[in-house]
Design brief:
Oligomer: heterodimer
Distance between the termini of chain A: 85 Å
Structural class of chain B: alpha/beta
CATH superfamily of chain B: Aldolase class I
CATH class of the largest domain in chain A: Alpha Beta
Number of domains of chain B: 1
CATH superfamily of the largest domain in chain A: Thiamin diphosphate (ThDP)-binding fold, Pyr/PP domains
CATH class of chain B: Alpha Beta
Strand order of the largest sheet of chain A: 1-8-18-19-17-20-21-22-23
Shape of chain A: globular
Chain lengths: ~1200, ~325
């Protein structure tokens, strides 16, 4: 055997690495947490990396996972070795094809980073609920429990599939394994090649559909033969387990690691045995090793091949001493007799004993339990608790572990203090900010340790739910033996706080071990560090004798030319004080790594990083720890005292990081949560906030319009309201004539603002005596926090400006409307949320929102809090997310239900008209409800109607009361990103607009799948580098607007708020007013474009000025009037498209990496822009009947 | 008529050289420059800021990410990056393959940073010489003139120590004593001085209350300033001299040569009238020379420098008085 090569990679890369080598075609589609596998494949293909046979695999992105499965099926049928990668809902979409692929005995491997299926809520995290739904497809199922096993099982699956002709699901735990970075042995290509029998590949080819030896496959069959034909596959399934074991044995000979269909670990005379699959197996393994050392008689069966389930081999794996078997399922099947693995084990034992397989002769006691749903931690203490349960006289069956079920009492207790982490493992925890490079630096650190030492290394990264000001926690372990701890660090030797603000928010030292080291990045002088720490932190440091270090990393980074990126500085600190490597060696290794990592990005980048390394050590200080607590403040409460009970008891606990401790009883049973809760989560993430200069403000309303977080607002009010205003509360006289005698104010929510600066960018006014100042200017938040918080509270208490007096078709007045979408977790400077907020302002009190999965569903609906809010009347948008692919249909469902209930209400009104009065009933039924005052009138009528109905004691009146609110016009909004609208949901979207129903579709077009990290969609413009288009997108953007216009009956608008806000406003008003389907395609700048997020509106302007993005409105109502329905709102392009493209990294990157390709694609982009503008101009210039020729 | 001249140790067919400008951004134009008779071409400038900021931008924007567990990054890693400087080097190579006239690379910067290493790469790519354009606008109140001058010298020395090919230095006239600055650069090893750099002066956009760089092409009167200093320096320094700014006709070029320039550089006039206009200027120049019965350009060079001028004071302060006196009423 050759010298071993070690690499530090995550599970997804391990899977992609081997699959890429063993296949010729990859059909891909992004879905967390499997997207990276497709991304690797695409990236390698663009670099020309070859597979085992010297060929560069073809990687094709499809419009959905269903599409990918279809393409896989076709590619397999046509003879290519083909693979795919997916998870969760993606796997569900592949299931129809999977039955076919299996039914036709087609060898392939589907790689699944197993993820939770959406039920009462979506979750991107890991469990087996997805793969368990696929177990009826006929696919074999092989499970890997660690990153090393992913590489191993991937190869075993492929080799077994070819020989057995069964397709395989190769699965591993989403995030825990897919995203865990681990030092593993790389299986060299020649060993992989040895595992793959070329003869079997030939046979696969020979079975392919070919006109040179034609066959027909995929017949339709009748009752006479289908059944018998279905049974023909049995020999293949009977043979498969033997083949897999044979392949495993061959693998052991070639590679050196032996696996079995069922691997037993534990005492040969174990009495209690756990059966488990996936990463939990490693945790159980580690725990059993510990328990054995304490003399316990326990054991574990790790299930590798779950389907076909080999009963005999399973029986042989159980020690004869086994008395109680506990089966752990990482899934939940409500209403079943038990979870699937448990049921399989019961059946296997029953059948196995009767057949005389294995060593046990009598049926042991068997209990099943659920663990780890949605990546819930599964720790050694939980493993021990399961064994403790098995040891009891009457072990609890159908139990849960890891939660507190105080409703149906399924849970078993565990001791959170039980800790078996070996002393020779260094455990380090880093708290960073998403954008500060902490995670990247830690990934780099574990590579350095992995490559420079004999030590094994593990890295796992946890993020909070917000995209702006994200807290990241990096969990790193280093040790002399392979690390089996598939759970978060609970006792850390080293903790680093990379962002000062987090120290007052999170109790991050609660898990530091005695004598551990704490490093804080803070701007304080070293003598002030101690006094600036909160009480709780000081107490931990004193009680646990923690060594304290500090550095002002921001200053070091800035002085080294690194700007805000403190990654290298903090990495150096870690190596300098953690003792994981000798200091000099560590610093040398970091420098080498910097040269290696950044070398291709240029000498300057290398230089500034090296400079940062050198500057760090001079600025890193150990702080003497006093014996007494001296702090004057403590970690802040997560939510304020005045928050509603549910917010305090449930959401507040989640915000504080104590969600794991919440018992079942605290939760709503059906996934229903209150809205308007972000207001209680004061995140204080802005370093700087805007300050209003009222003396020069022109009251244009642009600042609240573009604010992504609704944290800058306007009110116009009676001066008498100002009686008790705080001293620093600013107002001016309202300028507009409609507001004569009223006061005007612009107020910032200091604790909710992210400090993005977009309001400053948009402000059109310059100070005449100092042109560097505008009517809004950024200023540090901390000195302003207290006064502005008072002002904000006062502002909220001011009455909302009467909506009836506002001219809603002008931005300056419309923006006074209260936003009912506020303080979302979207990125600072987000380009989507201003549009969403606009919907909430204009129509929020009567809107119901269907939201496709994506960024908008995450910042809109990810716990703990939601930005969707209510007005003072308690009205506001009602919101839900069904799936990614079905959003248009979901929203159409709202429409038909609303219309139906309105129809029922009208029917009942007519029945009751004798009681209610004919005129009154007619008024209600025939009410015109187009504009705000008309709708308000109808609300008044309905309120009166309710009063009248209270007095009528009839069946019809009671029925009418349940539907009466539908008499007020409801506005249905279908919101989602381009991935949904252009790709996965396009079929549904197309159908919905074809129905003619009155729905409003808002497409937040970021031109990539932003939420999953920027994969190519059909909205991606030509030449852009995106994931899945590593070599630049070679085709143009799909013209969705043009396609929708083709119906002639759909209102279509293409807008870019940053380029023309009044056109955006008009479009939203017209779309809603149009009594039919409307679609608005909204340019949404995005961090995924690689742009300056402090000046993103400039990108929108350039996109429009260059003709890359054409603004227009198509209103079918105009056609009815004999006018041309198309209004072109864009002027002819005035700058070249290249000028716009050069200002965004997504395009520039191609120029820098593949200039020849970029040249061609840039030219193509210009041609497309020219041609499109000409086409639109032609269409807009056409004269219609009613227009003068 | 022998119009050859020597510049930076090279024999040029003509003293008319195309200065650093967008004219040399594509190879076809460079061929056109040769075909129109230029003695040499100075390529468009590679800016220090371009080298540094391009790398930093790529580093910063490519590493954006970690905003959620789902979006830990946004861009696929590329196997290589051909940064602007690499493209520039490729451009030098292509230019060298395409034309026979000397190709002078232009490096523009104002600090002694790592960008200077690029000079070596330019040499490796085949550049015949380097024109080092030190474009420095000091604004710190505490910075003395001698500190500024020191920076110039340091930059030149770093580049000279990195390359073997000749190095010309293009500077502005804004020094307390231009002659001393030229002398210092001469001593530090400058193979030629290119006089003068024309700073793009800012302008105010009244509509948007913004300062905007406003590129104004030179006019014939711009030539007066370099003319004076070339005449003063000719014969007093070892380095060759190139004249640039305001040379719009054959006679303009002749005046510069007479003052002491080895070459006269053209840009604005070619941007206005096209590269082929070089032929017109050459024709104007040769017509004049023939008419006045000159035999060669070499005869001309420095013939009216201060040292060889019948009235040396005409380039000095006294001339100011004389000039003004003409305007007496």
């Amino acid at each position: 055997m050759k010298d071993k090569v070690f690499v530090t990679i995550d599970g997804n890369e391990a899977a992609a690495h081997v699959m890429y080598r063993m296949n010729e075609v990859c059909a891909i589609y992004p879905i967390t947490p499997s997207s990276n596998m497709g991304e690797w494949a695409d990236e390698w293909a663009s670099k020309g990396i070859k597979n085992l046979w010297g060929n560069v695999p073809t990687v094709v992105e499809m419009q959905s996972e269903g599409g990918a499965a279809g393409a896989v099926h076709g590619s397999l049928q046509a003879g290519a070795l083909t693979t795919t990668f997916t998870a969760s809902q993606g796997l569900l979409l592949k299931i129809p094809n999977m039955f076919k692929i299996a039914g036709e005995l087609t060898p392939t491997v589907f790689n699944i980073s197993a993820r939770t299926l959406a039920t009462h809520a979506l979750s991107i995290f890991g469990d087996h609920s997805d793969v368990m739904t696929a177990k009826t497809t006929g696919f074999a199922m092989l499970c890997a429990g660690s990153v090393q096993e992913v590489m191993d099982m991937g190869i075993i699956a492929q080799a077994s599939a070819l020989e057995s002709r069964l397709p395989f699901i190769h699965f591993f735990d989403g995030f825990r394994t897919s995203h865990e970075e681990s030092k593993i042995e790389l299986v060299p290509d020649e060993q992989i090649k040895e595992m793959i029998d070329d003869e079997l590949v030939m046979k696969h080819r020979q079975r392919a559909l070919s006109p040179d030896h034609p066959v027909l496959r995929g017949t339709a069959q009748n009752p006479d033969v289908f059944f018998q034909n279905r049974e023909t596959i049995n020999p293949f399934y009977n043979a498969a387990p033997g083949i897999v074991q044979k392949v495993m044995d061959k693998y052991a000979k070639i590679v050196g690691r032996q696996y079995h269909l069922f691997d037993y670990v534990g005492a040969p005379d174990a009495e209690q045995v756990i059966v488990i699959m996936g990463s939990g197996g490693d945790t159980a393994h580690e725990t059993i090793d510990y328990l054995l050392s304490k003399g316990e008689k326990v054991g574990l069966i790790k299930v590798r091949l779950y389907r076909p389930f080999d009963i005999q081999k399973f029986m042989e794996a159980i020690p004869s001493s086994a008395k109680v078997i506990g089966v752990l399922d990482r899934t939940k099947e409500p209403g079943a007799t038990g979870e699937p693995l448990y049921m399989d084990v019961i059946n296997a034992l029953h059948e196995g004993i009767s057949e005389g397989y294995g060593k046990i002769k009598t049926m042991p006691k068997v209990v099943g339990g659920r663990y780890g749903l949605s990546s819930k931690e599964f720790t050694p203490s939980m493993v021990k608790a399961v064994f403790d349960n098995l040891k009891t006289q009457k072990p609890k069956n159908h139990f849960t572990i890891g939660i507190n079920d105080d409703v149906t009492h399924t849970s078993i207790d565990f001791d959170p203090e039980f800790d078996i982490e070996p002393p020779d493992v260094i455990r380090a925890l880093f708290f960073g900010l998403g954008s500060d490079g902490t995670v990247g630096a830690n990934k780099n650190s574990i590579k350095i340790i992995g490559e420079n030492t004999e030590h094994y290394a593990q890295g796992y990264y946890v993020y909070d739910s917000k995209k702006a000001g994200t807290l990241t926690a990096s969990h790193l372990r280093f040790g002399p033996k392979p690390i089996r701890s598939a759970y978060l660090i609970t006792k850390a030797n080293f903790i680093a706080c990379h962002q000062t603000v987090f120290i007052e928010k999170y109790d991050m030292l609660k898990d530091i071990s005695n004598g551990g080291t704490f490093l804080i990045n803070a701007p304080w002088k070293k003598e002030d560090v101690w006094d600036n720490l909160p009480k709780k932190v000081q107490k931990h440091i004193i009680d646990k004798k923690v060594k304290l270090f500090s550095i002002d990393a921001q200053s070091v980074a800035e002085s080294s030319g690194m700007g805000r990126r403190i990654n290298t500085v903090m990495q150096v600190c870690f190596f300098a004080i953690s003792g994981v490597l000798p200091r000099e060696q560590a610093i040398g290794a970091i420098k080498d790594s910097i040269k290696k990592t950044y070398g291709k990005k240029g000498d300057e980048v290398v230089k500034m990083n090296l400079k940062a390394v050198d500057n760090t050590l001079d600025n890193l200080f150990e702080i003497a720890v006093p014996a007494q607590i001296s702090a004057k403040y403590d970690i802040r409460e997560a939510v304020p005292e005045h928050a509603p009970e549910f917010v305090k008891d449930v959401l507040g606990e989640i915000i504080a990081g104590r969600g794991d401790d919440l018992p079942v009883s605290k939760f709503p049973v059906d996934g229903t949560y209150p809205t308007g809760t972000t207001q209680f989560e004061k995140r204080n993430i802005a370093l700087q906030i805007p300050v209003w200069d009222e003396s020069i403000c022109i009251q244009c309303g642009k600042c609240p319009m573009v604010c992504p977080h609704a944290s800058i607002r306007i009110k116009v009010f009676d001066p008498k309201e100002l009686a008790n205003a705080p001293a620093t509360f600013k107002t001016i006289d309202a300028k507009d004539k409609e507001f004569a005698g009223m006061k005007y104010t612009v107020q910032i929510a200091p604790e909710d603002c992210t400090g993005c600066g977009v309001c400053v960018e948009v402000c059109p006014v310059k100070n005449k005596t100092n042109t560097s100042l505008k009517a809004l200017n950024l200023s540090p938040q901390i000195p302003l926090r207290d006064t502005e918080t008072q002002n904000w509270d006062y502002f909220l208490r001011l009455p909302e400006t009467d909506r009836n007096i506002l001219k809603v078709n002008t931005v300056r007045q419309q923006q006074i409307q209260q936003p009912l979408f506020e303080f979302s977790g979207a990125c600072a400077g987000c380009g989507e949320t201003p549009y969403v907020k606009l919907v909430s302002q204009l129509f929020g009190d009567r809107a119901v929102v269907a939201n496709a999965t994506g960024c908008s569903s995450i910042y809109g609906g990810n716990l703990p809090t939601t930005p969707w809010a209510k007005n003072n009347d308690g009205r506001g948008p009602a919101w839900s997310n069904s799936l990614f692919e079905d959003n248009a249909e979901f929203g159409l469902g709202y429409r038909v239900a609303i219309d139906k209930q309105k129809e029922i209400a009208e029917g009942l009104l007519i029945k009751l008209q004798d009681k209610l009065g004919n005129e009154f009933v007619n008024e209600i039924i025939n009410a015109k409800q187009v504009n705000e005052p008309e709708i308000l009138e109808q609300r008044k009528r309905v309120a009166l109607l309710k009063e009248k109905l209270q007095k009528i004691d009839m069946y019809e009146s009671r029925r009418l009361m349940t539907v009466v609110d539908y008499l007020v016009k409801k506005s249905v909004w279908i919101i989602g990103g381009d991935g949904w609208a252009y790709d996965i949901g396009y079929g549904g979207l197309d159908h919905v607009i074809a129905t003619g129903k009155n729905v409003n579709i808002l497409v937040l077009d970021t031109e990539v799948y932003s939420n999953t990290g920027g994969q190519t969609s059909k909205a991606t413009p030509v030449s852009a580098v995106a994931k899945f288009s590593a070599g630049g997108k070679v085709t143009g953007k799909k013209d969705l607007g043009m396609m929708a216009m083709a119906y002639g009956s759909v209102y279509v608008a293409v807008v870019a708020m940053g380029a023309k806000d009044d056109q955006t406003l008009k479009a939203f008003l017209e779309a809603e007013a149009y009594n039919g389907p409307s679609i608005i395609i909204a340019y949404s700048h995005c961090i995924a474009h690689g742009i300056d997020m402090e000046n993103p509106l400039n990108q929108q302007k350039m996109a429009v000025d260059s003709g890359q993005w054409i603004l227009y409105r198509y209103n079918p109502d105009l056609a009815k009037e004999g006018k041309n329905p198309l209004l072109l709102d864009s002027k002819p392009p005035k700058i070249p498209v290249a000028q716009y493209m050069d200002s965004e990294n997504r395009f520039r990157m191609l120029k820098k990496s593949k200039p020849e390709v970029a040249k061609v694609l840039y030219e193509m982009a210009q041609e497309i822009a020219n041609d499109r503008y000409k086409m639109y101009q032609y269409l807009a210039d056409r004269k219609f009947d009613g227009e003068q020729q | 008529m022998d119009i050859t001249t020597k510049y930076l140790g090279m024999e040029l067919r003509s003293p008319l050289v195309v200065s650093a400008s967008p004219l040399s951004e594509n190879i076809d134009n460079i061929k056109k420059i040769e075909d129109s008779g230029a003695g040499a071409v100075v390529l468009y400038s590679l800016f220090e800021e371009q080298i540094v900021s391009e790398q930093k931008d790529l580093y910063y924007y490519s590493s954006l990410g970690d905003i959620s567990p789902e979006a830990q990054s946004f861009f696929p890693e590329q196997s290589e990056y051909r940064l602007g400087p690499d493209e520039y080097l490729k451009h030098i190579r292509k230019a060298k393959e395409s034309v026979k006239i000397p190709v002078i690379a232009s490096l523009n910067g104002s600090t002694t940073g790592g960008w200077i290493n690029f000079a070596k790469k330019m040499q490796e790519a085949g550049a015949n010489a380097i024109e080092l354009n030190i474009y420095y606008i000091p604004t710190e109140l505490g910075l003395s003139g001698s500190d500024v001058e020191h920076t110039y010298i340091e930059i030149l020395k770093s580049v000279k120590s990195a390359v073997k090919i000749p190095v010309a230095v293009k500077i502005s006239p804004y020094f307390s004593n231009m002659a001393n600055m030229a002398h210092q650069l001469d001593n530090a090893g400058a193979d030629a001085l290119v006089l003068f750099n024309r700073f793009y002066q800012p302008d105010i956009d009244l509509e948007n209350l913004e300062v905007k760089p406003n590129i104004i092409l030179s006019n014939a009167s711009s030539a007066r300033l370099p003319l004076r200093w070339i005449a003063i320096l000719k014969g007093r320094i070892q380095a060759d001299i190139a004249a640039t700014s305001g040379i719009h006709s054959g006679t303009d070029a002749i005046k510069m040569l007479m003052a002491g320039a080895n070459v006269s550089m053209l840009c604005s006039i070619l941007l206005k009238n096209g590269i082929e206009y070089l032929k017109v200027i050459e024709k104007q120049m040769t017509d004049w020379l023939e008419q006045k019965e000159y035999e060669s350009v070499n005869q001309l060079v420095g013939s009216m420098s201060q040292l060889r001028n019948a009235d040396p004071s005409s380039f000095e302060r006294a001339q100011y008085m004389k000039a003004l006196s003409k305007y007496k009423f």
